[in-house]
Design a protein that fits this description.
Length: about 210
């Protein structure tokens, strides 16, 4: 199956390379989409993602994999992708912010954060924007990390988290229960467990078509 991988905020396509290579070893064709929150605003980036997907997918079945902000870009693009002859066969979301998250709200007024993360970083703290994102109707698997700190000195208290997002913030309005992984937010895409689960799910999707 063709697979498009979209990295998270503050990362580059290289962060998805290991996952891409693991899926290629299972016989899938992968493409990496890159963007820059510092240099791009959200809507033009979303439109560029839609065009990229249209070019690489053509009429063949394809799946989308996003990490963090990449998942927000995917969800925002779904309305446009549903209008195409070939919508996504499946989506895989790795540590997606599925509601306006505490971390984004905390940093929203920080001038360095505003400079580096631009409009996209601000949108992650915008409750109206996050609530309006389309909910996937195709098969979707959502992965939440639980490798973050908990306890007395953790900003999350005793709530399971990946160091950036709580499991509750990953779940948000997404319909399917999240799949818990012992990973932290920044490195969840490197998890062998995540790659194996995605590959297994893709095999099931291919066999059902």
């Amino acid at each position: 199956m063709n697979i498009v991988l979209i990295h998270g905020m503050g990362r580059t396509p290289l962060s998805m390379l290991m996952l891409s290579q693991r899926l290629r070893s299972k016989g899938h064709s992968t493409k990496l989409f890159g963007y820059s929150p510092t240099l791009e605003s959200f809507e033009p980036c979303q439109q560029r993602l839609v065009r990229f997907i249209q070019r690489v997918s053509a009429t063949d079945p394809y799946a989308l994999i996003g990490h963090s902000l990449g998942c927000v870009l995917i969800r925002s693009a779904l309305t446009h992708l549903h209008e195409q002859p070939q919508p996504p066969a499946a989506c895989f979301f790795l540590a997606p912010p599925s509601q306006a998250c505490k971390a984004a709200k905390f940093f929203a007024d920080n001038p360095i954060y505003r400079l580096l993360m631009g409009e996209m970083g601000q949108l992650l703290a915008n409750e109206a924007f996050m609530e309006a994102l389309p909910v996937p109707t195709m098969p979707t698997r959502v992965y939440a990390g639980t490798g973050g700190p908990i306890g007395k000195f953790s900003p999350f208290g005793d709530i399971p988290n990946d160091g950036i997002l709580s499991v509750e913030e990953v779940q948000g309005a997404l319909p399917n229960p999240v799949i818990l992984m012992p990973s932290v937010h920044t490195f969840i895409m490197y998890s062998r467990q995540v790659a194996d689960d995605i590959a297994h799910a893709l095999t099931g999707f291919e066999n059902s078509t």
